[in-house]
Structure formats: C-alpha cells, structure tokens
Write a structure and sequence with these properties.
alpha+beta, Immunoglobulin-like
Length: 451
C-alpha cells in the first residue's frame, strides 16, 4: 500500500528571540557561497548586495531529536530568511542529491543581521513512528479516553459513542504530538492527524487495549515463571511487554497448572494480535498529511560589512576641576569586531561578549573651550584625552577618562607660578557622536564588502 505524504515540523534548536551571532574572527563568505557547517558554527559572515547560496550535507544537520537523517529520509530543502530590519525573503526549494543540498538566498541589505530558517522535507523514519506511537499508547490521558470510548459502546446511543470516539481521537493526537515533541517534532496539520488516528484506532484499539490487562495478569505469575525464564522473580516483574513476550515465547509451560498456562497463552496471543494491530495502526495513522516531515533549523549571522572595528567621534567633554566644557575629537578602538547596531545579541552569552560590543579604548584631542571662561588654564587650548567609550546606541557614546595638558597660570604678585607649564592630568566625562555610523562614512572604519 502506498502512503500519501503528510507534514511534520521540527522545532528550531535555537530560540528565535535570542539568535546566536558569529564568533569574533569569523571569515567572510567566499564568492557568494556559505557552507552550512560554517554558518552553524558561527565561522562565517554573510555576503550582502548579491544573491548567495548555502550548501550542506544532511548528515551535518543536528536537531533536538538527534541527527536529521535519523529522524527522516530527506528529499527536499527550502526555507526563508528575515533580516534585522524586518525584511523577509524565501529560499527556493531544491531537491536533495544523495545527501547534499543547496539553496539560494536573495540580496541582504547592509546594516542588518539575518536569521535563516532551513526546512528539510521527507518521510519520517520507522524508528520515530514506532517510538511516538508506543509513547502515545502509554499516555495516561489516552488510556482514560480509550476506556471511556469502550464503555460508550455498551448500551449507549450513537451520539454518545461518536462523542467518546472524538474525545479518544483528540487524546490520542495530543499524546502523539507530545511524544513527537520530545524529538523536536510537531504536526503541521493536527486536524488531519486526528482524523487519521480516529479511523485507525477504531480498527485496532481492542487487542492493543487488552494487552495491558493480559500483561499485568502474567506479571503476577513472576514467582512461577522465574525458573522457566531463567531469571529471579524480581527481574521478571520488571520486564516490559516486549521483553516478557521474548522471554516466554517458545518456552515449555507444561509444569504450570492449567489456569497459569491459560494466562500465559492468552498473553502471548494478545501480544501477537496487538503487534499486528500496532503495525496496522502505524500504517493507517501516518497517511495523508501525516507521513511527510519538515525538519526546521534556524541559524543567524551578521552581514560582513558591519564588522566595525573603530569609530571616529566628535563631542563635548566636561572637566570638573578645570570647570571647563570643551569640544573634542576622538578615535574609539574596539576590543574586537562589532556591529553598528547595539540591539542585537552578543556573539556568545555572558558578561564579557556583551561588554565587548559596547566598550572601546578612546584617544583624541580636546580642542576648544566652549564654556565661556575668560581664559583657559590649558596652554594653546589643546589637550590630549584618553579613556574608555561606552556605546549607548548606534550613533551616541559616553566617554570618560583622563585629560593631559600643560597649564598656563597667571602670575601672582608679579611672580610666575612655578607650576606654570607643567604637565597635568584631570578627569573628564562627556557625550559624543560616532560620525562613522553615518551611512556615507561607514566604510572608513567598517568592513565595506565581503570577498
């Protein structure tokens, strides 16, 4: 029997509201092509201003449920991307060749970071189908709904029976969704899933349901079965239905009394009927929109021209001891490459990566007193300033540090002060504007193009 495709979705490994950023020292994309492994490991910066491709291998994609090629047989890959300005684009769907894949993205705008979502389509693996259904069958809510349905089939109206069937189907779907969720999977079409499960369970639930009671009865015979199986009674009592069936199959039970022999035979027969029903359940449940899967993986990277390493600021500083407000020009050197935008997550979690995106070493000149003082104490009006800058946002910075100058002091009682012309240092603090954040000047202190 051929099965029509269905859709499942694998949840992103990384939360989209806190996307990872590239490590410092990541390299630009070469010739408009990006390797998936480099993107995943934050070792590449995305190109901008031209279409680019992402290439990879199915075996390299790891999802929360494990390796992608263990979860499904992948046939196509597609996706989408959204930059930090909110502009979105699609990754054209492409067929997977062997295990290799390649998708093409459009042009990325400068001054953005991009979140890329890759979607891998294919059929769920037999292991995942079996695992999910077994977890569903063991779910307490599903068992309760199944018991309610069974009771509703005895002496009840058709309306009551149908309502119980709908409740059972819904409980089964919820349990199956939860089971798949442990592997990072969710169904894209829960309505179709419920429809398929309802029809499948109605055809298969009796032997599967009866297995639990036969299993529990057989476990009560652990002391009598222990010498036959070759395990102690405590070990027999802990066997799962699968293991208990394997241990009992083909054994000689002629030494047991007739009631015990009947109980064991009924368990073995019910297990075999349940196994056949389970195979049918899997075949019926994973049809229509239930067998095709979509594995979703989300990665984020910066556009390479935003790897800014220095900035040129102009502003005003205040020196409390001199009681002067002065203009200044300063170069700020960062401790690593940073983005122009300050509202993006740091390369790695932690205090230092976040601080590195904000703090810079600052060196420059204080040029002119603008406080209205009659005469400045600074010789020739010029002073050297140094310290630290802290980026408040893309354009504005607050700086603080030391101001070095040679002093000019008035004569006292006709005598020149011995401190006149000496080198002094004062504290300063003041705001500034990073003029290299202005679009027309970004290329001066920022990487202008991928190559």
């Amino acid at each position: 029997m051929s099965l029509a495709p269905s859709i499942w979705t694998i949840q992103p490994v990384r939360a989209q509201n806190a996307p990872a950023q590239p490590k410092a020292g990541s390299t630009p994309a070469s010739s408009g092509s990006v390797k998936y492994t480099d993107l995943r490991d934050k070792k590449v910066s995305l190109p901008y201003g031209e279409p680019f491709t992402i290439t990879g291998d199915v075996a390299d994609v790891q999802l929360s449920g494990g390796a992608l090629n263990d979860l499904m047989a992948v046939t196509t890959v597609s996706g989408s991307y959204t930059d930090s300005d909110g502009t979105s684009g699609a990754l054209t769907a492409a067929t997977v060749t062997g295990t290799s894949w390649q998708v093409t993205a459009g042009k990325l705008a400068a001054d953005t970071s991009a979140t890329i979502t890759l979607k891998f389509a294919g059929t769920l693996s037999d292991k995942i189908e079996t695992q999910a259904l077994k977890m569903m069958l063991g779910d307490a809510a599903y068992k309760a709904a199944l018991e309610k349905f069974r009771a509703a089939t005895v002496g009840r109206t058709s309306t009551e029976t149908m309502a119980a069937a709908a409740e059972m189907s819904s409980a089964a779907a919820d349990a199956l969704i939860a089971a798949l969720g442990r592997n990072g999977l969710t169904p894209q079409d829960p309505s179709s899933l419920r429809t398929n499960l309802s029809a499948a369970i109605l055809k298969t639930f009796e032997p599967i349901y009866n297995l639990e009671s036969k299993y529990q009865i057989t476990l009560q015979l652990a002391n009598d079965l222990a010498p036959i199986i070759g395990k102690d009674a405590a070990a027999v009592a802990k066997l799962s239905p699968d293991d208990l069936y394997t241990a009992l199959k083909g054994r000689d039970f002629s030494g047991l009394n007739s009631d015990y022999q009947t109980a064991v035979k009924q368990f073995l027969k019910t297990y075999e009927d349940a196994a056949s029903a389970f195979a049918m359940l899997k075949g019926l449940a994973f049809t229509a929109t239930s067998s095709l899967a979509v594995g979703q993986d989300t990665e984020t990277d910066i556009v390479s021209d935003l790897k800014k390493y220095a900035g040129f600021d102009v502003g005003a500083l205040y020196s409390p001891r001199l009681s002067e407000l002065r203009t200044f020009a300063m170069v700020n050197i960062y401790f690593g490459s940073v983005q122009l935008k300050t509202d993006v997550p740091p390369p790695k979690p932690g205090f230092w990566p976040a601080l590195q995106q904000r703090v810079s070493l600052a060196f420059g000149m204080a040029l002119k007193d603008i406080s209205g003082a009659s005469k400045s104490k600074i010789t020739s009006e010029d002073a050297f300033v140094y310290g630290l800058g802290f980026r408040l946002n893309k354009y504005f910075r607050l700086g603080a540090g030391g101001l070095l100058y040679r002093t000019t002091l008035p004569a006292a009682n006709g005598s020149t002060s011995p401190a006149n012309g000496t080198l002094r240092q004062e504290f300063f603090v003041g705001p500034s504007i990073d003029v290299t954040a202005i679009s027309a000047l970004q290329s001066i202190f920022a990487k202008a193009k991928s190559n």
